[in-house]
Structure formats: structure tokens, C-alpha cells
Write a structure and sequence with these properties.
Layout lengths: L3 H7 L6 H17 L6 H13 L4 H14 L3 H8 L2 H11 L7 H11 L25 H11 L14 H8 L3 H7 L10 H5 L8 H14 L6 H5 L7 H8 L7 H6 L17 H13 L4 H9 L2 H11 L3 H15 L23
Helix pairs in contact: 2-4, 3-4, 4-7, 6-7, 7-9, 9-12, 12-16, 14-16, 16-19, 18-19
Length: 353
């Protein structure tokens, strides 16, 4: 005999909308605590939930909440993430400027992006809604939603913060990294330049996701000259500003700081999340892969900033990351035999941190 919970799961496909609403609402907490009740009959309840995202907005809200919780289960994650029809519906609803559940769609997509095959989004196209003023490439639409939709400016019910996590997970794949480094035809902008401005945003989710995107894309070593060039990506100010705090620095050092770091207000605070600080320090370390990167960071006096960060951020991960980059910046290039021939030096081999 089915249990009461199993009977409740059966009601999510009931023809009466009020019964579906009550059933889905009451099942949200169990989708987290007891996901097994949704895995019966070859995941039939999950299939029903995927249909319900097109139901009344309140039913869809509860169905999406259930799916967000359930995709913590690998079997369900695979089922949801490999369903092309479902993905198409999700993306279409996500870009609708009047969609009341857009943030939940973004959260679900963030979970789905942990499944490697979701990188197929890189080649996916669909017509963009007129208000978005994007092009047909789905990656550009996601990026434009993230940028233009901050603070409810595209959809009054959504801020699209969780798209930062979507793009961060996707940027682990080489083809997505290339997307971030390629000037787009429809607006003439390199995508990495659209997201770098969010490294000091008020949203922890945005800052964390963007920090991870920058770090992942930095693994493309041939792009390092563009990363460091003031007229191209110019990434260093956007990485260093979240790291630097209100400390006083030696005047001679400050004269060599990047212009953006020289006249900071006395109440300037470094990022409050040590994980974000660690990610930025690790990105700096990746950018020391080439001799040019190392020499530039010595020239603009990155070391004193790292030293203060190590001293003032009581976090093991941050301190270890700081120690690694200090070892690189303080070594003697000549003693290390660092007259680099590009592609020949061990330093040009990126190691995952």
C-alpha cells in the first residue's frame, strides 16, 4: 500500500488545479529531505514536475522549487539536464521579461549546469525577446539577462543573480572560455568585459560567480596579454579592488599601484567573503604563468597588497593562496633560469589550484 507521501506525490498530476497546487506546495520540503519518493515508476513524478513548470505561476513556482531541490540527486540531475525539450522550455521562460518565476529558473539552470553535457548551450540558438536586445546565441542571451537584468531592470520579479553560477560552471569548458574571449558581432563587445564590473557588486552570488568565471577563463594562457592590456580586458583593477582594504601603504609603493588603487577612500573595505578573495588571489597566480605577467605584478606592487591580505584575512584558504603567489613574485627570475621561450618554460604550464 502506498504511504501518504507517495499518495501526495501522485496528486501532482491531478486534473484539478487546486489539488495540484496543494500537492506541489506541500511536497517542496520533502523534495529536499526525501527525494526517493519522486524516483518511483522510472522517475514519473519528476517528469510530471517538468510539465508543471508551464502550469499556473504558483503551481510552477512549487514545481520549480521541487526540481531545484531534487537536482541535488545525480540520477534526477541527469534526467533533467539531458532533456532537450525541457531545456528549451526553461530557456524560453527564463528570457520572458514578464516571467514571475525567472529567478527560480535561473537557480534550476545553475544546478543543471553542473552536468557536463549542458555545455551544448554554447551552440544553441533561439530568437531573443525584443526588450533584451540580444542576438540568437543562447549564451549571449544569458549574459545579457545577467547584465541588463541586475536589480530588476529587465524583469521586475527577477535579478538573475544565479546566472553567475550558470556561467561560472559553463566556463570550465574550453569552448565557453573561448566565447568569453571573443568579440561578439551583434554588439562588438568581448563577453568577459561585460561581467568584470560585477566583482564589487552588492550581491554575494554575483561576486562569487563572476570571480569564478574570471579565474576559469584565465586558464587560457594565450589570452593573458589581453587580460593584462589596459586597452583590452584590463582585468587587474577588477581583481585587486575586492582584495585591497583600508590599510595604509608605503608612499613609494602606492605611487606604483594601478591608478584605480591609488586614491581609495579611508573606509574602503575588502570583500567580506574569504572564498571570493581566495578565488581572486588564485586568478592572480594563474596570471603569473608568463614572465610578462610576473614582471607586471612586481611593477605595480601587487606584493604589498597580498602581504596585507595574508595578514588581515583569517582564513586558511586565503593565506595558502597568498603564500603561493608570494613564492612566485619574490623569486629571482635569473636564478630560476627564467629567460622564457614561449611554450618552452615549465611556468607556462597551468596547474589547477
Amino acid at each position: 500500500m502506498p504511504t501518504e507521501l507517495e499518495e501526495l506525490v501522485g496528486f501532482i498530476s491531478h486534473p484539478n488545479p487546486q489539488i495540484r497546487l496543494v500537492a506541489t506546495e506541500n511536497l517542496v520540503p520533502f523534495s529536499s529531505s526525501q527525494p526517493s519518493i519522486f524516483k518511483t515508476n522510472d522517475l514519473l513524478p519528476v517528469k510530471h514536475l517538468k510539465i508543471l513548470i508551464r502550469d499556473h505561476p504558483k503551481v510552477a513556482e512549487h514545481a520549480l522549487s521541487c526540481l531545484i531541490n531534487l537536482t541535488a540527486d545525480r540520477e534526477i540531475l541527469e534526467n533533467v539536464s539531458t532533456d532537450d525539450k525541457f531545456l528549451g522550455i526553461l530557456l524560453g521562460n527564463l528570457t520572458d521579461p514578464k516571467e514571475p518565476n525567472a529567478n527560480l529558473y535561473a537557480m534550476l539552470l545553475a544546478n543543471m549546469s553542473k552536468w557536463d553535457s549542458l555545455k551544448r548551450i554554447a551552440a544553441q540558438k533561439q530568437p531573443a525577446p525584443e526588450p533584451l536586445k540580444s542576438d540568437e546565441l543562447m549564451l549571449n542571451q544569458l549574459l545579457d539577462l545577467f547584465v541588463k537584468g541586475a536589480d530588476g531592470t529587465y524583469n521586475k520579479d527577477a535579478d538573475y543573480d544565479y546566472l553567475a553560477y550558470v556561467l561560472a560552471d559553463l566556463s570550465k569548458h574550453a569552448e565557453i572560455r573561448q566565447f568569453f574571449l571573443t568579440q561578439q558581432d551583434y554588439d562588438g563587445v568581448m563577453p568577459i568585459n561585460k561581467i568584470k564590473v560585477f566583482t564589487e557588486h552588492k550581491s554575494d552570488i554575483r561576486r562569487k560567480g563572476v570571480a569564478s568565471i574570471i579565474k576559469n577563463v584565465a586558464f587560457d594562457v594565450p589570452a593573458h596579454p589581453a587580460f593584462l592590456d589596459e586597452d583590452q580586458i584590463n582585468i587587474l583593477p577588477y581583481i585587486l579592488l575586492p582584495i585591497i582594504g583600508p590599510e595604509e601603504y608605503d608612499e613609494d609603493d602606492m605611487m606604483d599601484f594601478l591608478p584605480d588603487l591609488q586614491l581609495l577612500p579611508p573606509d574602503k573595505q575588502r570583500d567580506t567573503d574569504p572564498n571570493i578573495i581566495q578565488t581572486h588571489v588564485e586568478t592572480l597566480t594563474i596570471l603569473t604563468t608568463t614572465r610578462e605577467g610576473r614582471e607586471l605584478m612586481r611593477k605595480i606592487k601587487v606584493y604589498p597588497i597580498i602581504k596585507e591580505t595574508h595578514l588581515r584575512v583569517d582564513d586558511e584558504g586565503v593565506q595558502e593562496a597568498c603564500e603561493r603567489i608570494v613564492q612566485v613574485l619574490m623569486r629571482d627570475e635569473a636564478e630560476e633560469g627564467a629567460e622564457n621561450v614561449e611554450g618552452d618554460d615549465e611556468d607556462d604550464k597551468v596547474v589547477e589550484l
